[in-house]
């Protein structure tokens, strides 16, 4: 192969021996005819450099074409306390909501709430290519943060297809093989339940001192760190710090921990939903499906109201008041504005805690903004997900475009309640070796700058 290629790049009227070509001057060598009409001309030295480059590619391990393993952010941990995190998942085909729920062992209402989608039936079909944020419980396993689900294999499945297609690159085939003790990855029987480890991080539920929920995001081929930061309302520096990146360079398939601004709760430690944190622009269902909590745009305070998902909820009325959870009264006074609110204070021993507070504020608060709900998508217009921080409210609009604080907002019934969570973490690090990227060096199908370096090292002038 080398001989045919190399003789085509020789001069128009020359002949050369193989030994002469590679730098030997032995008189005992066989001559080869040279193509008298080559398409271009290269000097013998230049041809020698090309020959050496080909040897490097083939014999030296494939410098230019060797695959690089994707990198993922790993958070070491020692505590058994869990947190809620998110998985960035793109549907590989049309899937029912219940099928997505089964893949990640997360209830359907939690998936809809995390994406601000109007609750619907579990057999609702969502379109291929739709990006969803999947809530998952992030726990400590073998010293690192990890989420785990199970997958029942089908006849056509392979470990690579399960990892890259079905789970969208959130896990590798090697990780599935190791988690299940599979000796021969080519033998995957149908009907077997496999343990699937998924990436997640907690980082104490905060980012730069503010409440945050972390999204495991699989980098796409056209992604940049700056583009990802802009999409999720953060900065390049923040992403680099969260993922211990030495430079703002990522490769397709890498998994980043993306901090999402969130609303934190102040529930007592003995409440079952202690540590509940809701990402900005989304909802969470808690208290046995009796309460929905939202995090409005540019807000860090939870706003919780009753739902209609459960028929057996404890009282949600504040003691010695006619106000229900989520109700607020405002009264203008000479010294300021008197604000009385009935707020949700957690689920304690199966009972909803409703707290009545009254405060005198210098100015009356404006209308609270809550995330917009969108109907279940039927087509994907773009490959981006549903808006992270919507600007309008699904509640009743008022003159001037503001929205009222609802007396009681309800969500149509769905399947299961969401889990309550808490947070903890230690410092994180990025696993995987750095990669070589020669993109941009190619000129007219040759790596000219790299060849020049090789030639200089050889002491050759051409």
UniProtKB/TrEMBL annotation:
SMART domains: LysM. InterPro entries: LysM, LysM2_CERK1_LYK3_4_5, LysM_dom_sf. The chain crosses the membrane at residues 49-69. PROSITE patterns: LYSM. This is LysM domain-containing GPI-anchored protein 1. Gene3D superfamilies: LysM domain. One of its GO terms (cellular component) is plasma membrane. One of its GO terms (molecular function) is peptidoglycan binding. It comes from the Eukaryota. Residues 149-196, 215-258 form the LysM domain. GO terms for biological process: immune response. Pfam families: LysM, LysM2_CERK1_LYK3_4_5. Residues 408-420 have a biased composition (Low complexity). Keywords: Membrane, Transmembrane, Transmembrane helix. Residues 391-429 are annotated as: Disordered. The keyword Oxidoreductase does not apply.
């Amino acid at each position: 192969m080398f001989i045919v290629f190399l003789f085509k790049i020789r001069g128009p009227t020359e002949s050369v021996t193989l030994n002469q070509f590679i730098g030997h001057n032995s008189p005992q060598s066989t001559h080869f005819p040279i193509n008298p009409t080559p398409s271009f001309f290269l000097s013998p030295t230049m041809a020698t450099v090309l020959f050496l480059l080909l040897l490097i590619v083939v014999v030296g391990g494939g410098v230019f074409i060797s695959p690089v393993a994707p990198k993922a952010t790993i958070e070491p941990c020692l505590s058994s306390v869990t947190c809620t995190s998110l998985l960035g998942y793109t549907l590989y085909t049309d899937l029912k909501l219940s099928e997505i729920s089964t893949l990640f062992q997360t209830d359907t209402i939690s998936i809809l709430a995390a994406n601000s989608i109007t609750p619907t039936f579990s057999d609702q079909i969502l379109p291929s290519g739709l990006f969803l944020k999947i809530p998952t419980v992030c726990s400590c396993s073998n010293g690192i943060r990890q989420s785990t689900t199970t997958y029942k294999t089908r006849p056509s499945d392979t470990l690579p297809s399960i990892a890259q297609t079905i789970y969208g690159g959130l896990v590798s085939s090697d990780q599935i093989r190791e988690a299940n003790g599979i000796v021969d990855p080519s033998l995957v029987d149908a009907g077997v339940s496999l343990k699937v480890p998924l990436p997640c991080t907690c980082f104490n539920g905060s980012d730069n001192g503010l409440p945050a929920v972390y999204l495991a995001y699989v980098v796409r081929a056209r992604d940049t760190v700056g583009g990802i930061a802009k999409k999720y309302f953060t900065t390049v520096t923040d992403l680099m710090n969260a993922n211990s990146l030495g430079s703002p360079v990522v490769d397709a398939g890498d998994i980043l921990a993306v901090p999402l601004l969130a609303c934190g709760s102040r529930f007592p430690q003995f409440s079952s939903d202690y540590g509940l944190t809701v990402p900005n622009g989304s909802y969470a269902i808690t208290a046995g499906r009796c309460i929905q909590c939202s995090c409005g745009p540019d807000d860090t305070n939870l706003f919780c109201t009753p739902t209609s998902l459960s028929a057996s909820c404890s009282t949600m009325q504040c003691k010695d008041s006619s106000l229900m959870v989520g109700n607020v009264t405002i009264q203008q006074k000479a010294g300021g504005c008197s604000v009385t609110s009935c707020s949700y204070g957690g689920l304690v021993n199966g009972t909803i805690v409703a707290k009545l507070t009254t405060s005198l504020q210098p100015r009356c608060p404006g209308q609270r903004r809550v995330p917009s709900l969108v109907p279940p998508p039927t087509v994907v217009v773009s490959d981006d997900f549903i808006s992270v921080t919507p600007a309008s409210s699904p509640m009743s609009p008022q003159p001037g475009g503001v929205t009222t604080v609802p007396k009681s907002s309800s969500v149509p019934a769905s399947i299961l309640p969401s889990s309550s969570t808490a947070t903890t973490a230690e410092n994180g690090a990025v696993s995987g070796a750095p990669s070589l990227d020669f993109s941009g060096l190619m000129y007219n199908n040759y790596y000219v700058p790299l060849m020049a370096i090789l030639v200089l090292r050889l002491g050759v002038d051409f």
